Amino acid sequence: MITGKSIDELKVGDVAEFAKTVAETDIYLYAGITGDFNPAHVNEAYAKTTFFKTRIAHGMLTAGFISAIIANQLPGPGTIYLKQDLSFLAPVHMGDTITGRVEVIELNVEKNRVRLKTTCSNQDGVMVISGEGLVSPPKASKT
Questions:
Q1: What's the DSSP call for residue 139?
Q2: Domain ranges for the chain
Q3: Beta bridge partners of 19
Q4: Are 115 and 105 in contact (CB under 8 A)?
Q5: Are 66 and 15 contacting, i.e. CB atoms less than 8 angstroms apart?
Q6: Which of 20, 49, 117, 118 is most buried as measured by Cβ atoms within 10 A of its Cβ?
């Protein structure tokens, strides 16, 4: 069984990233899975009347990139997500390549908690999400 890094294997400053280009299909699949059919995401005629002037990706779709990093890389498999604060700073458009980034900013060994700086930026370096997460990494494997 693959497990992520235990708290003893982590250090402040550890970083992991994940990048993906957001496609129209991603937006429709997310809408279908979650039931979030806000016309700002799925109706171009409506979206043209908004200050974005076109459809935008769901904020939580983009925030999911942070979850992917936590689940797969840092700390990785077996990590329990406890808390996430997010600020949505800029829209994500179809065709944008978003890079999620997670950085360890604090370790609480006694409580097995890791505080993370979490961000997503687009291909132009514009930060679209900023936040902070709290996770419980997997326990060290017994060998």
A1: P
A2: 7-22+64-136
A3: 99
A4: yes
A5: no
A6: 118
pLDDT tens profile 1-55? 788 999 999 999 999 999 999 999 999 999 999 999 999 999 999 999 999 999 9
Q: Is the pTM of this model over 0.90?
A: yes
E strands within the chain? 15-21, 80-88, 97-108, 113-121, 127-136
DSSP state of 29: H
Contact 129, 116 (CB under 8 A): no
| Mean pLDDT within 111-131 | 98
Do residues 118 and 84 lie in contact, with contact meaning Cβ atoms separated by under 8 Å? yes
**Can you identify the CATH homologous superfamily of domain 7-22+64-136?**
Hotdog Thioesterase (3.10.129.10)
Please give the average per-residue pLDDT across 109-121, as a whole number: 98
